[in-house]
Amino acid sequence: MAVWVSMSAAMWFRSLIRLLTRALVATPSLLSSNWLATGLSIVIFVVPQLATWRKEGWNPAYMKEHWKENLKIGTLTVIGAWIVLFVVSIGKSVYQDHQSLVTRIQDLSRQKAKAEAQQQLNPSQRNTETPPSVIVNVPKPKAFVDFDRMDFTWGQNDSLLRAVFWAKNKSSEVARNAFIKAGLSWHPAVNGAASEADVEADFKVVKGASASHASRAVLASQESMYADLTRSFTQADLNAINSGASVMLVMGIVEFSDDNGDHQKEFCRLVVPPLGNTAGPGFRSCEKHNDLKY
To answer: Could you tell me which of 243, 272, 233, 267 has the C-alpha nearest to residue 253?
Structure first.
């Protein structure tokens, strides 16, 4: 507490010294370049003489004899006048400081009010400003062509089997340059299915085929295309498949393209017996080679 009082007293003392210094420096400006400076000079000279004249009457001999006293009176008059001017300068400096402080406070008040108004305006500006545009990279839709069904027909006393592979564009997009590579075979059953070695060997043959069995430059949405194969097929083959001793594999690759590039859809199905001239076959998927590759 004592330290704070000491600091406050020191601050007030420095402020007082600055005020008196400013007033002292500004005092002569009260007399510069105006009639007051001329009048004060005349007053300084005339006042001592008038005082002597009033006291002693008009007596040049007396005035000459008492010139020192007259000079003293003039000097005191000048000092008094300057003291008055100094006091006036102090009052003027205090008033100017007061006006400057009032002006500064008014400026700060206006700035504060402006800042508060801007803070209240900013939320409404944010609510009305147009949000920045957001660019979303939406992937292009893709076509999808896949194995759809198969039809069997028999010929030449059931010694030939004609298989028709149907593939369908099951998307809403157009597929282009679509073609089918297909394969049909039957093998001894292993636990009700073809062995993995048989499946891989057959699929390798289909994949390595140099020519397709059918092709379409454009395949519209929900449109189908087909490829057909003919195989020698005996009654013994038919009996083995219907009894479960053998299994028939239907496999292939459908290749096509769209705006996203080239694609490949594999398919591999096991024919579910019985097979015959009138009965249509059923199918179940193989464990492998049903992938869609983009």
So the answer is: 267
Q: Which two tokens stand for residue 10?
A: 């020191």
63-92 mean pLDDT:
73
- From 253, 258, 158, select the one nearest 205 (Cα to Cα): 253
Q: Cα(100)–Cα(279) distance, rounded to whole angstroms?
A: 110
CB neighbour list of residue 178: distance below 8 Å, 6 or more residues apart: 145, 167, 169, 215, 216, 219, 225, 254, 255, 256
Q: pLDDT (tens digit, 9 = 90+) per residue, 12-40?
A: 777 777 767 766 666 666 555 455 665 66
- End-to-end alpha carbon distance in the chain: 83
Q: Which domains does the chain have, with CATH numbers?
A: 2-125 (no CATH), 145-293 (2.60.40)
CB-based contact 104:224 (threshold 8 Å): no
* The residue type at 260: N
The tokens describing 86, both together, are: 């100094």
User: What average pLDDT does the structure give for the chain?
Assistant: 77
Nearest to 178 by CA among 186, 164, 189, 167: 167
Measured CA distances, 280 to 128, 206, 273, 274, 276 (Å): 67, 24, 9, 8, 8
Is residue 77 within 8 Å of residue 52, measured between CB atoms?
Answer: no
d(CA 253, CA 167): 10
Q: Which residues contact 83 (CB under 8 A, 6 or more apart)?
A: none
